[in-house]
């Protein structure tokens, strides 16, 4: 099976029309049809967009080996955790923060900035508030 055929397989697995799939990856339906029929070359950009947009394993898309979809346990957060050697607490803190609604993130950010300003005042009592650049109202 070619990469062109695997792209069609992805689209069918997602139960999408060529138009719907093309819109998601910014390709015209006719262009996508030509790709699926092997009439057009699949560019690196198209491969990257498909993989990111639909959580497709790039190795599978290129070779047909492995699983079509990236496992849920191999999320972006998991990749970051591995890259930066995050411990359980750090990973959970980040995950909890990004799942908060924006209004709660703002509250958390303001609390954190206030806390850091207080720590800075304790460590450097002779530095004025203006010098610390504290802007907890953002």
Layout of helices and strands:
Elements: H1 3-13, H2 18-24, H3 29-36, H4 44-54, H5 58-63, H6 76-83, H7 88-99, H8 102-123, H9 129-132
Helix pairs in contact: 2-3
Mind explaining what this structure looks like?
The protein is 64% helix and 0% strand. The model has no long low-confidence stretch (mean pLDDT 88). The chain has 9 helices and no strands. The chain is elongated and about 70 Å long. The protein has 2 domains: 3-71, Orthogonal Bundle (434 Repressor (Amino-terminal Domain)); 76-132, no CATH class. The chain is mainly α.
Kindly summarize this structure in a few lines:
With 138 residues, this protein is an all-alpha fold.
Sheet of most strands: none
CATH architecture of the largest domain: Orthogonal Bundle
Q: Examine the coordinates and then state which fold CATH places here, giving the name of the CATH topology of the largest domain.
A: 434 Repressor (Amino-terminal Domain)
| Tally of domains | 2
Broad structural category:
mainly alpha
> What low-confidence regions span 5 or more consecutive residues with pLDDT below 50?
none
Tell me, rounded to a whole number, the average pLDDT.
88
Q: What is the CATH H-level superfamily of the largest domain? A: lambda repressor-like DNA-binding domains
Could you name the key traits of this structure?
138 residues; mainly alpha; 434 Repressor (Amino-terminal Domain); 2 domains; 9 helices; 64% helix
């Amino acid at each position: 099976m070619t990469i062109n055929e695997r792209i069609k397989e992805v689209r069918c697995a997602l139960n999408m029309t060529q138009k719907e799939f093309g819109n998601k990856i910014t390709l015209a339906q006719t262009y996508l049809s030509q790709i699926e029929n092997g009439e057009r070359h699949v560019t690196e950009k198209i491969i990257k967009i498909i993989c990111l947009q639909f959580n497709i394993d790039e190795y599978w898309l290129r070779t047909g080996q492995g699983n079509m979809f990236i496992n849920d346990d191999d999320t972006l957060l998991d990749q970051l955790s591995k890259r930066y050697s995050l411990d359980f607490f750090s990973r959970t803190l980040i995950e909890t923060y990004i799942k908060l609604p924006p209004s709660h993130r703002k509250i958390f950010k303001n609390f954190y900035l206030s806390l850091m300003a207080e720590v800075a005042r304790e460590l450097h009592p002779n530095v004025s508030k203006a010098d610390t650049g504290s802007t907890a109202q953002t």
